[in-house]
């Protein structure tokens, strides 16, 4: 694998300071983009080449470009945070780079070297660092690296040309209500992914497959959809775009355990999910991966041992789950309020990301 250098071609017309500050005051999620992007090409026989930092702008694609027809596409999501001393640091870009490689293998695409992935993110954040929101709040700069098949033609085969791109977007809370609990619609007849499929790859197709059930969730007044496994329709997998955690309290001996569904191959190995297994232990909780059935979820909520449920992901950070609705009825977690363990984990993770707590795991990558 060759590692291209990234040539800098900065924009002659970046957004004015006043316009940028207006956006940073209320960034929302995924609505505004910074002044630049990084692009790197891959061609069969030549490898990675023509790395460039260029002004943010449209991509020009032939209508017969492979990705537009057969969806050979993968992406990532990671965040850069303003640190107390004004510098900027990214959270675990190496983990995203490795998952990007795993997604590429599953989609028969070329693997971008980990160091090139990180360098591309570094170059973009360095150039657009004025877009990283101020230290102290929950806002960050969300990076969206992605790769598309750019060969022109309608043959169904792995393409012989690809384009890797990184764009960046200042980000506030993913859910409009911030840390307010979200409601979940349990999709019992639609599945997100199947064994042997590509549920563990971060590819647009999985998100497209989730949209109909997400629309059904909205019809039932819910914010998100939860999926069960495709074979037994019994095991809880994940939400449309984030992982799940269950918090169990053992009142008899005062212990707390957090559990996230096992990676069976049909759910995504979230970086936040993985980080929380360690953060929980740091806080004195037990943490584990295990299969959780929908019947057990309902029963353990009813008998008081399952005290909280929360969703987690790069975009969502940690978001409490409130009401769970299904065709068979509904129930509520932790009285519809954010649970104390959920909030503690959330604060602990954000404190590492914002540089307030010591980075004992070596997760923060400083520019
Ligand atoms: C992320 O959390 O970064 C994702 O890619 C999920 C998407 C729903 C925004």
Automatic annotation (TrEMBL):
Pathway: Amino-acid biosynthesis; L-leucine biosynthesis; L-leucine from 3-methyl-2-oxobutanoate: step 4/4; Amino-acid biosynthesis; L-isoleucine biosynthesis; L-isoleucine from 2-oxobutanoate: step 4/4; Amino-acid biosynthesis; L-valine biosynthesis; L-valine from pyruvate: step 4/4
Main enzyme class: transferase
Annotated positions of the N6-(pyridoxal phosphate)lysine modification: 202
Cofactor: pyridoxal 5'-phosphate
Family assignment from sequence similarity: Belongs to the class-IV pyridoxal-phosphate-dependent aminotransferase family.
Keywords recorded for this protein, A-Z: Amino-acid biosynthesis, Aminotransferase, Branched-chain amino acid biosynthesis, Pyridoxal phosphate, Transferase
The protein's name in its UniProt record: Branched-chain-amino-acid aminotransferase
Gene3D superfamilies: 3.30.470.10, D-amino Acid Aminotransferase, subunit A, domain 2 (3.20.10.10)
Species: Streptomyces natalensis ATCC 27448
Transmembrane spans: none
Keyword Phosphoprotein attached: no
Keyword hit for Transferase: yes
Top-rank taxon, per record: Bacteria
Catalytic activity: L-leucine + 2-oxoglutarate = 4-methyl-2-oxopentanoate + L-glutamate; L-isoleucine + 2-oxoglutarate = (S)-3-methyl-2-oxopentanoate + L-glutamate; L-valine + 2-oxoglutarate = 3-methyl-2-oxobutanoate + L-glutamate
GO MF annotations, alphabetized: L-isoleucine-2-oxoglutarate transaminase activity; L-leucine-2-oxoglutarate transaminase activity; L-valine-2-oxoglutarate transaminase activity
EC id: 2.6.1.42
InterPro entries the UniProt entry points to: Aminotrans_IV, Aminotrans_IV_CS, Aminotransferase-like, B_amino_transII, BCAT-like_C, BCAT-like_N, BCAT_family
GO process annotations (BP): isoleucine biosynthetic process; L-leucine biosynthetic process; L-valine biosynthetic process
